[in-house]
Amino acid sequence: MTTTPIHHSVYRHIDRLHRKYIDFLQELIKYRSTAGNEKEIQDRICKQFRTIGLVVDQFDIPEDQLSIDPAFVRTGMNYSGRPINVAVLRGTRHGRSLALNAHIDIAPVEDQESWVHPPFEGVIEGNKIYGRGVVDDKAGVSVMLLVAEALIASGVEIAADVLFQTVIEDEISGNGSLACMRKGYTSDGAIVLDGTWPERAVVSHLGQQWVQLKIPGEAKAACNNSRASNPVQFVPPLLTVLRDLERELNRGVSWFGIENPCYVSIGSLSAGIWAGSTPENISLNLQIGFCSPWTFSEVREMFQDNISNCDQLPDNIEVQFLGLSTNPVDGDPENELCILLKRAVRENFDKELEVVPVTGHADIRHFTNAKGQSVPVCLYGPGGGGNPHIANEYYHLDHMPVVAKNLVHAILNWWGNVSHSPG
Fold first, then answer.
1. Statement: the pTM of the whole predicted model exceeds 0.85
2. Are 191 and 339 spatial neighbours (Cβ–Cβ below 8 Å)?
3. What is the pLDDT of residues 134-143, one digit of tens each?
4. Helices 399-415 + 5-29 axis angle, to 10
C-alpha cells in the first residue's frame, strides 16, 4: 500500500473544498471562450490561482518567434490579448517536477435551441452540470485548482515544482501548450486533464488534419441557372473522393485493436446566400483522423492527389491546410505516471484503471520530448460526462473529488517520501 496519512490529510481538504470548485466550474461555463475570446476567462482563472497563493505568469503566444517552430500550427488568427496562464507551486527540494495542463477554449455552439438547458448557464440537474465546454475542458481547470488548493491547505511538503497550465487552442492547433514548452515551462512528467473518466487514462491518439476546401462557381440569377456553373454539382463526386480516401487510410490497418480507426468528417458546408441565384462558390471544412504509420504530410499529399486525379472535379479547387495538424501519438501505457494512477485508482476506490487509445486528439504530443528526452505523459481526468462538441454537453459532478484524490495520490508518490505539517 502506498496511501499514507499524508494522502488522507490532503483528501480531507478535497472533501472540504470540492463544493467551492463546483461553484467555480459553474462560473467558468458563463464565459464564451471560443478561439479568440479567451482573455476574460483566463483573467478570472489567473485571479483564482493568485488568491490561493500561487505565482502566475500570464503571457500571450509570441507569434513572431513561435511561428518558425516546426510544431507550430497556422490558424490565421492573431495572438494578441489571448493569454496563457502558468501558475507554479514551488518545491522545497530538488525532486521531479510535474505539469498539470487543461485547456479553456471551447467548441462553438451551432444552435442554442438544440439544448435542453442554455449552454452558458451551468444548470445543475441531479448529479450533472450542463454547459458548453463543461467536460471539455473547464472541469479540468476546476479539478486542477482543487488539487492545488488542497495541497497548499494541507501543509504537505511540496517536494518539487508543480506547474498548473491553462492554455488556449487545444481544439484548433495545440499552440498554447507548445508556447508553454518553448518558454521553458517543461517538467519531468505531465498529466493533461482532458476527456477521460476516473478509471481511464490515455497515452495514444490519432493524428488529425483540418482541410479548408473551396470550389468556385459562376453566380447567375436563378432563372439563368442552365447557363451557370453551379458548384453544388461537384458535391457528389467530392463525397466519393472523400469516402475513397477514408478507405485508403484504413486499408490493412488495425490500430491498438481498433478496426477502421481513420475517418474523414465534413464539419461544415456552405454555398450561396439565398434562393434567387446560384452560389459564387461552395466551401467545406473537413477533419481527417489517421493512425500510424501515416503522417500529416503524407495525408496532405494523398488528399491533394485524390482531388487532382478525379476527372469529375474542376481544376480550380482551392485547398488550404489551416488549423489542426498533428501526427498520431502512440504512447507507452506502462509509463510511470500511468502506473501511479493505476495504483491510485486501486487503493483509493478499489477499481482498475484502463489505459485506452482514442480517435480524438490532445496536447500530450508537446510534453513527450520537451526536455530533450522522453518523459512520461498521459491524459487523465477531469471525469466522466457526455456530448463534447455537440448540444447538451454535461459533466458528472461526483467525479470531481474522485479524480482530484487520484491525482493527489499520483503526485505524492511521484515525489516519493514527503513530510507533512497538518493543515
1. yes
2. no
3. 999 999 999 9
4. 130
